[in-house]
Amino acid sequence: MTRLIPLMQRPLNQLCALILLATPITSAMAAGTQPAGTQASTMTIHVPIPVTPLAEVYGTINQHLATHRSRGREWITLGGGSGFLKYRLWPDEQSSTTAGDRLLSQSTVPFGVEYAKPIKGAITTIAECGQRDGATGTGRLSVTVATMFKQGRSYTVLPVSQVSAVQSTQSCVLSEQGVDASPLMVQVYRSDLLEVLPAVDRQAAGLVPVKPAVARIWNELQEPLLLDETEHLWLMLNPDIAAVAGIAPLSGSPAAGYGIIARPAVVRGTKPTSHHLPLPEPQDHFRDDGFHVDFALQVPMEEANQRLREAVIGQEWSLGVGTIKIVNATLYPLGNQVGVELVLRGLLPLTLRLKGTPAYDESAGRILFREVDYTIKERTPATDLAEEWLHEPLREELAGRLSLPIREELDLMRQALEKGLNRELTGGRLHGTVSQLLLEDLAVQAASLSVRFKTGGTLRYDARPDVAVP
Fold first, then answer.
1. Across the chain, what does the average pLDDT equal?
2. Nearest CA to 251 among 42, 418, 431?
3. Which burial class, exposed, middle or buried, applies to 370 when counting CB atoms under 10 A from its CB (0-12, 13-18, 19+)?
4. pLDDT interval class at 296 (50, 70, 90)
């Protein structure tokens, strides 16, 4: 992760970056304890479904059909008993591809048929095409089976197949009659294929071991993630609940999605201790509400005052009848407001005690201080006279000078956090976005400056293609 310490050298109008990166945290946070009120966040994990062993199963559908047919009657009744059909299949040419969230199995099926009629109470062959060929049949069918996937209980993935297409690509003309049997074979083959597919799906279901992969990822997500080695920043995802999140394509292949509800926290210091929870049973429904992390940090008062002085001391301006220069500044606690003591020289050699309510203006990208006012610490006839004539213009001038632009710093911080959330892990890759980074609260306390940030974005974990291979 990019080193962010240079941001600490910037003045107070870039205080936001300093707060996150230069702040010692409380002992509870350093130990990995979640702060009270940690917001629930969501993320998704995608586990690729191992299609290679499945393709082998669906590539042997002809064998399933042969077994299925041998267990029943050899002849297929046509037209209520007015005719009969028997077919023979040869080894097919098979291939498979993935298309989004499904597996497509394609076959070129050589076949031959016999056509028979009932004659004197017996089924008698009257025509055939390719049935007696030794090497291969005469006709050809092009067959496509589409296998979708649904998620079952306890992290199971269940294949569900349907016949997408059965088409004739080469005729099979019956001897004597000169009739192409391919259209009839298309209907018969489709019907038999629909009967056997549920059994093939049940066999294939045992070849999709997703749960061990999900358990491995679940354990990995409970380990602290180092965001910045120099600044000792750690992200604790703290996954809590899992739920099914549907089947989605991952790099062009189907993947099982699982939603994770977590309560993440950012901590500073030594590597926090992880407390591993066992993988829970998945809930049925998942709603992705985005990934959020709140930062509740404390800046020591000495540090905050130093940055404030670097930013404001030396500022000088005119009120028309003379100039004013800031020579010192100190923060002090004031409940929900921020207090700043300013020492001025020039036209008004006095000390002001300002108070204002901090607020973040997202559209302007600034920290503003609303309801700004001040009192004069030293009261003399001269300061009373200046107060009578200059209070309002001085108040407005000071309120404007306490407007702190932080958009650039927030963008830099957002980019740095986003970089830390995009990384290779043991079983796959973490992908994170930080679409929003806001200053939620700023308050001066007796010993520190308390700041709270809120981030919003997305987080997902894409497992490697081999993570679920049996």
1. 82
2. 431
3. exposed
4. low
Q: Strands across the sheet with 233-236, in order?
A: 225-228, 233-236, 265-268
* Residue 69: per-residue pLDDT: 66
CB atoms within 10 A of CB 37: 8
> Could you give phi then psi for residue 188, rounded to 5 degrees?
-65, -45
| Phi, psi (rounded to 5 degrees) for 64 | -65, -40
Question: Are 369 and 412 part of one and the same domain?
Answer: yes
User: Please, what is the end-to-end C-alpha distance for the chain in angstroms?
Assistant: 35
State the DSSP H helix or E strand holding residue 87, giving kind and residue range, or none if neither: strand 83-89
Which residues in 49-204 belong to E strands, given as ranges?
76-78, 83-89, 93-99, 102-119, 122-129, 139-151, 157-170
453 shares a domain with 305: yes
Tokens, residue 390: 């200059």
Contact of 128 with 113, CB cutoff 8 Å: yes
- Residues 58 and 105 sit within 8 Å (Cβ to Cβ): yes
- d(CA 116, CA 93) in angstroms, rounded, equals 29
Given a contact cutoff of 8 angstroms between Cβ atoms, the answer to whether 293 and 264 are in contact is yes
The HSE-up count of residue 231 (CA atoms within 13 Å, CB side) is: 27
**284 touches 154 (CB < 8 A):** no
Q: How many domains does the chain have?
A: 2
What confidence score (pLDDT) does residue 207 get? Answer: 87
- Look at the block and give the residue holding tokens 């992390």: 293
Q: Where are the beta strands (DSSP E) in 152-208?
A: 157-170
Is residue 132 located within the same domain as residue 189?
yes
List, in sequence order, every beta strand (DSSP E) within 315-427: 316-318, 323-334, 337-346, 350-361, 366-376, 404-405, 423-424
Q: What is the DSSP code (8-state) at residue 83? A: E
Half-sphere exposure of 330 (CA within 13 A, CB side): 10
> What's the domain range around 159?
51-205
